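The record is given unchanged here:
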Amino acid sequence: MESLILRNKGRKKFIFTPFRIAVLATLLFILILTIVAMTSLKLYGRFDLTVTKRYSLSEQTVRILENTRKEVKALGFFTPSVSQQEETIALLKLFSDTTRFFSYEIINPEKNPGSTRQFGKIVPGTLVLESGKRWEKLPKTDEASIVSAIIRITQEEARKIYFTIGHGEQYLDDTTESGLARTKNMLESIGYDVSAVNLLKTASVPPDADVIVISGPKKDFFIDELDELYEYVKKGGSLLVMIDPIPLPGIEGFTRRFGIHLGNGVIIDKSRKLAGSDFLVTLVDQYSTHEITEEIDSVSIFPLSRSVKGTGLREEGITLFPLVRTSEASWLETDVMDLFQKGIFTFDELADERGPLILAIAGEFEGSLRKEQQRYGRIVVYGDSDFIKNTYFDQGANGDLFIRSIFWLTKEKDLSASPPMDREFSPMILTKPQIQLLFWLAVVLLPLFALITGVLVIRKVRWQG
């Protein structure tokens, strides 16, 4: 092969031999790799293509980390035999990549026994989070546990949420299908202090209450209790009311003081029937533009619900925001006697109310300002309480809707994204038409197509033979 000669005036001839060309190409390739590597360190990016975003932090976690201004350090005590070490390290790296205020260190407790002394007994696989003089050992190393610990060790004081009792309300510690243990655990996992309160015994709303929750009472409240709650909201407190289709004149009159009317009947929607249930379980996917619902894009499930709507009669300074609406095919069935005793439900143009119906509404009372916290009174009313029971809390957007209501009521703007839910459990909610479509596709059409194709192939082979 002839050599290529580069002639330069006043310089010696430089000959590009094949060997020298190969060396220069190798050096150029190494230079390009070095530039790419250095650029990647500055411009780091990753993509999570899993359906449940298993390898990404939730929106709520990112929002919390972005608003955290205290240094948080995670200490992972792992030995080589701990199985979840790599998974935990990858999760901690996601946290540290999100904010400069979070860092982590992996320690082998067998080689460094002195590092565990201040934390007491440490079992390999334990994760410790510390911020300033506060620290906490985590029993689990998943995203929800880590972000919950970050909230607890960085906030000055936990928000107080009280659930009323004494009127047949659901129990917080009840782990059965109709209990609220799942709701309580979720609230506590994101840093809230949850307790029960009997307003008849306390004679007033607890002074440290950030939110009062009324969930599914079976008996009416006394007028003194309702007066206390009204004054509490009027002076800047926050109230969450979830009422089932049960006649409660006291509660119904109480909500009307805020300009909120509770419908006297049960919502029926034949077009959005949940598979395996009756028409009393309402599926909802129509949400208004509001802080509570603006980022919710999945279906909510409301078993046995009533309508909620604003009225023109309200005190000056109260602004109402509809949150959730049913479909146009729904209606409010007022003949409850025939509905439950005879199972008869047909739309009556004169007595029933045609949809779409409002199922939840939020209100802000710009009356007397709670000046030490600079906030106005707020109220959220749902025409159902079953949607946060243990059975339904993790179904669809139910838990998300409830938690975001609490965030809005406590004015937690930095916590207004979706909470980190269990990503292993992601149920698919199918309506009756969707199940019928799957049946015709999987059981009828696809096998029929395969059968016809097979018959045509056999006939063609025989014809050619």
